[in-house]
Specification:
- With about 250 residues, this protein is of the alpha+beta class.
- It folds into three domains: about 1-110, Cytochrome Bc1 Complex, Chain D, domain 2, CATH 1.10.760; about 120-165 and about 230-245, no CATH class; about 175-220, SH3 type barrels, CATH 2.30.30.
- Helices cover about 45% and strands about 10% of the residues.
- It has eleven helices and five strands, in the order H-H-H-H-H-H-H-H-H-E-E-E-E-E-H-H.
- Strand 2 (about 185-195) and strand 3 form a beta hairpin.
- The longest helix has 20 residues, at about 1-20.
- The relative contact order is 0.12.
- The model is unreliable at about 1-20 (pLDDT under 50).
Length: about 250
């Protein structure tokens, strides 16, 4: 009996940990933190905002276990996507995780389930207007070509996957050249950038960083144009551009 009771302890402890993770108090604390630090991008209910994706539809969130996926993203940020890092305590991270998982639970419990985004939903724009935006105001043609890198893009990505690639390009690296006060010039792959720090990985793979007010630097990161456009797109721009991109097969 003692052996059986001992073996049950880890299970009981795990159940208690889950209860604490989903406690009303922890969720409420996470709600407050989320509104302060996350809602301006991801929306007050975590279902997406003007510049941030819907977290209740995120695969990372669905696969997260006690902050295993969410925690590192919050702490390290996603600079390439315009998400800053947050220096939060373990307790604050746990609260955010509890809130986000609660929002996921609410979203999944909605009558009829969450409605997905059909390809037809993203084909409601005007193709010709989208082409004009691509070649004109959007500045897309300065980096991309419908007969070059985008040839067949609508065959490789459909619907929401295509729109996600448009709004939040992945695995795209930039270059940076840093000039030190001594006059030495160091170039490499852009690793991190905010209002305080510029960092790169040099040809040997070493991470090097400097306060931005102590060096001069030039960044060649075409992907930043996508981040800048997030605050400029109108609904019509997105619909029209998506309609045009879906013709590139």
């Amino acid at each position: 009996m003692a052996l059986a009771f001992s073996a049950a302890l880890p299970i009981m402890a795990h159940a208690q940990a889950i209860a604490r993770t989903n406690s009303k108090e922890l969720i409420e604390t996470g709600d407050g933190l989320f509104q302060q630090k996350c809602a301006f991008c991801h929306g007050r209910d975590a279902e997406g905002g003007e510049t941030g994706p819907d977290l209740t539809g995120s695969q990372l969130v669905k696969e997260d276990v006690n902050g295993s996926g969410i925690g590192p993203v919050v702490r390290n940020g996603r600079p390439a996507k315009g998400m800053p890092k947050f220096g939060l305590s373990d307790q604050d991270i746990a609260a955010l995780v509890a809130f986000i998982h609660n929002q996921l639970k609410i979203a999944q419990s909605q009558k009829g389930g969450r409605r997905g985004v059909a390809v037809s939903d993203l084909q409601t724009g005007n193709v010709e207007a989208g082409k004009q935006y691509f070649n004109g105001a959007g500045g897309c043609a300065s980096c991309h070509s419908p007969t070059g890198d985008l040839a067949g893009v609508a065959s490789r990505y459909q619907g929401l996957k295509l729109e996600t690639r448009l709004l939040y390009p992945e695995n795209v690296t930039g270059k940076v050249t840093v000039t030190l006060p001594s006059g030495d010039v160091i170039s490499g792959t852009l690793a991190y950038r905010d209002e305080f720090t510029i960092a790169l990985r040099d040809s040997s793979g070493a991470w090097r960083s400097w306060p931005v007010d102590t060096v001069k630097f030039k960044v060649d990161a075409p992907v930043e144009a996508h981040s800048e456009l997030l605050g400029k797109y109108t609904d019509d721009d997105i619909h029209n551009l998506m309609a045009y991109l879906q013709t590139l097969r």
